[in-house]
């Protein structure tokens, strides 16, 4: 529950940054709803763009050139040309500045990705794979219709044979 409390605090802070006016009663009802919905698995917020050397250089140069050149397209072009002319050592300095300015990763905003097991292969999929080769000359849409008709025309014992074949195959990841 402690992890939920920290995530909820981050959530409230995020809402306050959006300048959302919420009453204490609203927050309590949101909290109750989140607890009842078992909102302790994932707490995801829009990612802030990771700063890199070019972005830092771009920000500083665009601000400097704003008075001289009001057209942002021309400024952007000029700044990108300047970046291309910089030496690698100067670019490395900008990259170091960006790394220092980047905020550390906040563990409360890390998304927990649930892994899903691949579905098992069905008998129909095995049948499709085997009959697809013989129907290459037919256009794809009609080919699938024909394969479906052939599958339905199979006797239940024949379909069962394909299903047992499918049981031995491993699903694709």
Automatic annotation (TrEMBL):
Sequence ranges assigned to domain HMG box in this UniProt record: 47-113, 117-173
Name the UniProt record assigns to this protein: HMG box domain-containing protein
Spans annotated as Disordered: 94-117, 150-173
Originating organism: viral metagenome
């Amino acid at each position: 529950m402690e992890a939920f409390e920290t995530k909820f605090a981050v959530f409230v802070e995020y809402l306050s940054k959006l300048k959302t006016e919420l009453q204490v009663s609203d927050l309590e009802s949101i909290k109750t709803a989140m607890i009842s919905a078992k909102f302790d698995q994932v707490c995801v917020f829009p990612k802030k763009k990771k700063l890199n050397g070019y972005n830092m250089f771009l920000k500083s140069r665009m601000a400097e050139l704003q008075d001289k050149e009001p057209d942002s397209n021309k400024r952007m072009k000029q700044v990108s040309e300047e970046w291309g002319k910089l030496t690698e050592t100067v670019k490395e300095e900008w990259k170091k500045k960006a790394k220092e300015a980047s905020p550390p990763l906040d563990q409360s905003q890390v998304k927990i990705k649930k892994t899903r097991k691949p579905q098992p292969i069905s008998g129909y999929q095995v049948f499709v794979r085997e009959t697809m080769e013989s129907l290459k000359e037919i256009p794809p849409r009609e080919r699938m219709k024909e394969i479906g008709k052939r599958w339905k025309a199979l006797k239940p014992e024949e379909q069962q044979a394909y299903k047992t074949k499918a049981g031995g195959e491993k699903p694709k990841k």
